[in-house]
TrEMBL record:
CC terms in the record's Gene Ontology section: dynein axonemal particle; extracellular region; neuron projection; nucleus
SUPFAM superfamilies: HSP20-like chaperones, TPR-like
Protein name stated in the entry: Dynein axonemal assembly factor 4
Ranges occupied by TPR repeats: 370-403
Species: Acrocephalus arundinaceus
Any one of the GO BP annotations: outer dynein arm assembly
N-terminal signal peptide: none
MF term (GO), any: nuclear estrogen receptor binding
Biased composition (Basic and acidic residues): 175-197
Gene this protein is translated from: Dnaaf4
Keyword Hydrolase part of the UniProt annotation: no
């Protein structure tokens, strides 16, 4: 049962109300405060403060400050007037219930509108970013086309210059061939003169003929080599398929010390988490990067459970289970929250799921299995199913026979079962 906070002090002006609420040692956060036009609620388990205000207020501009063991509210009135009291007097239960439900409904509608506005703004930002990106890509494409056009013009000029050089080379070869024909006529005349002078100077004529023949051979050999260089062009390359073989991964450790199985399991879990995140991308895209980590969500749920915020802890564990449904500690911790919230059937389901995942039974998970059996047995006993609860307590005793607390609880359950049997 909640403990109602009755002690508070307030004062007012024509336009505002100033309310001071003591916390009695409890620790409050902005999430514990709910305020609407005519309804104010502060829920700090196990303490609770609730007020149906005398007149409507401007909940948008009103503020609440937490400090020095108090919560200070500054509530701005919608209409300037002096109130007779802080809350409505002589209001029946039906009217109070209607005002309470109406305030919660309006708060939900307002939150929904803010979410829609945020979604629309985000879509507009995406549209603007897309247009800007398209504009940049268009400018880049135009720049590349201009570069291509300049390169094309440059290549065309070089090709034209090469063609002109080829024409000049052909003209030069034709002139060279005409010169060779003149050189062939001159040796005939010289041979005649050699025959006439053979008797006089034979050696001189022979040397002259050798020199002239070498000159003619030199010219013909150079032309022949040029023709060969022009005709012998390389053949085109043959097409082929290149096959790439990747080297297998080598682990430097020995097989008995290898952690290949653990690495493969970790990679599998990461792939499964990414698959779940991608499948629920529309719902999880607004989350921060750390909020997509199941371990971070588990630690957050543990902190909320320690502070007494069991509903917040359940929400954190729910999101963690959606990201990775193979961690038994998530179900085990969520079962503890359901026990605190009296959701006994859900506590039994989560404890059973944790026991399914805690297989095979090894010394490292003994503590977790004991907790799962005790929590499921507690839920059974609170549902007055003492026989099933006793079975779980006995299973926990088999795992940890030295635990005196579990033994005492099991003995109490046996007495309850005997008492019910005797009464029947």
């Amino acid at each position: 049962m909640p403990v109602w906070l009755r002690e508070h002090s307030w004062r007012q002006t024509l336009t505002a109300v100033y309310l001071s609420l003591p916390l009695r040692g409890a620790r409050a956060t902005p999430a514990n405060i709910f305020c609407s036009e005519q309804y104010l609620k502060v829920s700090i388990p196990p303490f609770l403060f609730e007020a149906i205000l005398y007149a409507p207020i401007d909940d948008t501009n009103s503020t609440a400050k937490i400090g020095n063991g108090n919560i200070f509210f500054t509530l701005y009135k919608k209409e300037p007037a002096m109130w007779d009291s802080l809350t409505l007097a002589n209001a029946d239960k039906q009217k109070l219930q209607y005002l309470r439900e109406n305030a919660v409904l309006k708060a939900h509608e307002k939150a929904k509108e803010e979410t829609e506005a945020k979604k629309i703004t985000k879509q507009e930002h995406k549209k603007y970013a897309l247009e800007a990106t398209m504009k940049l890509e268009e400018e880049e494409r135009k720049r590349i086309e201009d570069l291509k056009e300049k390169e094309r013009q440059k290549v065309a000029k070089e090709l034209e210059l090469w063609k002109n050089q080829q024409k000049d080379g052909i003209k030069y070869k034709s002139i060279q061939k005409k010169g060779e024909s003149h050189q062939e006529i001159e040796p005939l005349k010289e041979r005649k003169s050699e025959k006439m002078n053979k008797t006089r100077i034979p050696n001189e004529g022979a040397s002259k003929s050798r020199l002239k023949s070498t000159k003619g051979c030199h010219g013909s050999c150079s032309i022949f080599s040029q023709n060969l260089e022009e005709e012998q062009l390389p053949a085109p390359r043959a097409a082929a398929t290149i096959k790439v073989n990747f080297t297998p991964r080598v682990f430097p450790t020995a097989l008995r010390e290898s952690r290949v199985a653990e690495e493969e399991e970790w990679l599998h879990k990461q792939a499964e988490a990414r698959r779940i995140i991608n499948s629920d991308l529309s719902e999880l895209e607004d989350l921060k990067e750390e909020e997509k980590n199941p371990d971070w969500l588990k630690d957050k749920g543990n902190k909320m459970f320690a502070m007494g915020d069991y509903l917040g802890a359940v929400n954190a564990y729910n999101l963690a289970v959606r990201l990775n449904n193979k961690l038994p500690l998530l179900y085990l911790n969520r079962a503890a929250c359901h026990l605190k919230l009296r959701n006994l059937h859900k506590a039994i389901e989560d404890s059973s799921k944790a026991l399914e995942l805690l297989t095979p039974p090894v010394p490292d998970n003994e503590n977790a299995r004991v907790k799962a059996h005790v929590r499921r047995g507690t839920a059974f006993c609170q549902l007055e199913l003492y026989t099933e609860g006793l079975q779980d307590y006995e299973a926990a005793l088999k795992i940890d026979p030295r635990n005196k607390n579990i033994e005492k609880d099991a003995e109490k359950i046996r007495h309850l079962i005997q008492g019910t049997m005797q009464s029947s």
